[in-house]
Amino acid sequence: MAEQIHDHNAWTHGHLYLGAGHSEAERRTQIVVTATAIFMAVEIAAGVALRSMALLADGVHMATHVGALGLAAGAYVLARRHAENARFTFGSGKFGDLAAFTSAVVLGLIALGLLCESVYRLFEPVTIRFAQALPIAGVGLAVNLASALLLRTPHAHGHEGPHHDHNLRAAYIHVLADAATSVFAIIALAAGWFWGVRALDPIVGIVGATVIASWAYGLIRDCALVLLDAEDDPELAKDIRAMIEKEMNAQVSDLHLWRLGPGHRGLIVSLLSPDQLTAERIRSALRTRYANLSHVTVEVAICADCAP
């Protein structure tokens, strides 16, 4: 017998799963990518001309987050344009995760190339024009700090944190890493200029490559889990299961919880109930308690001998 419903909104809904601050994030990334792209070109050119591996590492590292931010900005645009496209079964919220995953793979390759060049310079040193390179590194640090302030988002607490926008959050963390690399470059250049410690320059290049590789690995791991629809939050899934079994007196036989986009999760749950428990009641209870469950599918089988 078909289930009688009392709220048609539980059955008819859209699939708009963009982050709460999607438009603002898009605007911020566009501003930052433009500003940093300009200085990136200046710093890389200066690193080559002045033969500073630390300066070049900082410029290439800046290029990595220019690329990441460029992909992020494009992903925001595509996600917005396709938000109502029915071909995307669960919305377009994962465009950002796909862009972040792609940029992270590229960054890993860049880190490998930078590491090789830095090691080579360690054993085959070249003359570096420290006096000219040092001010450029200082300006690079200022650009990175300004970008970090622009991309900074408040860190909320709870299951969703800062809505896990991998585009914006990864860009923010990457800009901070870039700022740290700029600090290392300034230290290396100052040491070479004032005290003649020339080996520190390629060593900083190695450190910069390590920072890029570490960031790339973490982002690849996190985005891959999202793209593969891995269980988004094991603790939340456990909490949902306990709520259904203890408060609804039903036995959960199957539960899938995954990320649809920043601030949005999907849930499919199948359960056995000894009572005439309706899917509508379960859905309503779940949506009331867990605000970020944007797409909820519930299947109920009545089984008199299946009490949890």
Question: Would you spell out the secondary-structure blueprint of this structure?
Answer:
Blueprint: H1 22-50, H2 53-81, H3 95-123, H4 130-151, H5 166-195, H6 200-227, H7 234-247, E1 251-261, E2 264-273, H8 279-289, E3 293-302
Helix pairs in contact: 1-2, 1-4, 2-3, 2-4, 2-5, 2-6, 3-6, 4-5, 5-6
Note down, in words, how this protein is organized.
- This protein has about 300 residues and is mainly α.
- It is built from eight helices and three strands; from the N terminus they run αααααααββαβ.
- Strand 1 and strand 2 form a beta hairpin.
- The protein starts with about 20 loop residues before the first helix and ends in a 6-residue tail after the last strand.
Features:
2 domains, three-stranded mixed β-sheet, 308 residues, mainly alpha, single chain, Alpha-Beta Plaits, 10% strand, Alpha-lytic protease prodomain-like, elongated
CATH topology of the largest domain: Alpha-lytic protease prodomain-like
The general outline is elongated
Low-confidence stretches: 154-163
- Tell me the number of helical segments per DSSP (H or I, 4 or more residues long): 8
Q: Biggest β-sheet: count, sense, barrel? A: 3 strands, mixed
Q: In percent, how much strand structure appears in the residues?
A: 5-15%
Based on secondary structure, the structural category is mainly alpha
